[in-house]
């Protein structure tokens, strides 16, 4: 009996470690803005070639057609995710209401949008936010799935508005 328990215990521990090696956490400070045309964001994963792998979260307004009424709402994510081709169930699986202010966290388990495990290697975590109307920010962080560490995500701002730049900040990616 003891001879059987050791291999089984080893297998359970090894499986658990492999699952943890695939976990990626994206965290950021979010300060909800007042006014129209703000508070939209999406988080997604791209492979090393820049192809969309999986969306972790998108605000419901944009994903449910708001991007058609307000073209400046998350244009990079809308294009990369091929949102126009998603059906209602796919959209429902990645969306939620705009959250309240605070530290937000989203996790990626190393799978693609169909739930298939992806190979270890280089990926990018992307976070885009519409700050207000044409003002937006795009964060990107390179990670190594199966590796371990933290990646700094630096902002690239679009538009001239500065007031809303505090909407998203302190973006961290741990893998």
Number of strands: 10
In N-to-C order, the SSE pattern is HEEEHHHEEEEEEE
Low-confidence stretches: 4-19
Lateral arrangement of strands in the main beta sheet = 4-3-2-6-7-9
The Cα radius of gyration reads 18 Å
Number of helical regions:
4
Residues in helices, as a percent range? 25-40%
How much β-strand is present in the residues? 35-45%
Shape: globular
- Chain oligomer state: single chain
Structural class, please? Answer: alpha+beta
Through-space gap between termini: 37 Å
| Overall pLDDT metric | 88
Describe the largest sheet: 6 strands, mixed
Description:
- The protein has helices at 2-21, 60-69, 75-81, 88-94, and strands at 24-30, 40-47, 52-59, 95-96, 102-108, 121-132, 135-145, 150-152, 154-158, 168-174.
- The longest helix is centred in the first third of the chain and has 20 residues, at 2-21.
- Strand 6 (121-132) and strand 7 form a beta hairpin.
- It has a six-stranded mixed β-sheet.
- The chain is globular, with a radius of gyration of 18 Å.
- The chain contains four helices and ten strands.
- It is α+β, with helices and mostly antiparallel strands.
- 29% of the residues are buried.
């Amino acid at each position: 009996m003891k001879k059987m328990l050791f291999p089984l215990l080893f297998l359970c521990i090894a499986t658990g470690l492999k699952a943890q090696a695939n976990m990626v956490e994206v965290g950021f400070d979010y300060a909800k803005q007042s006014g129209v045309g703000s508070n939209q964001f999406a988080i997604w994963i791209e492979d090393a070639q820049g192809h969309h792998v999986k969306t972790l979260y998108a605000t419901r307004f944009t994903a449910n057609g708001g991007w058609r009424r307000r073209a400046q709402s998350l244009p990079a994510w809308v294009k990369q995710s091929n949102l126009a081709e998603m059906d209602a169930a796919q959209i429902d699986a990645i969306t939620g209401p705009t959250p309240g202010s605070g530290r937000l966290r989203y996790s990626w388990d190393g799978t693609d949008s169909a739930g298939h495990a992806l190979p270890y290697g280089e990926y990018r975590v992307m976070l885009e936010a519409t700050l207000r109307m044409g003002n937006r920010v795009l964060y990107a962080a390179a990670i190594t799935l199966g590796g371990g560490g933290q990646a700094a995500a630096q902002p690239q701002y679009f538009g001239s508005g500065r007031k809303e730049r505090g909407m998203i900040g302190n973006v961290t990616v741990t893998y």
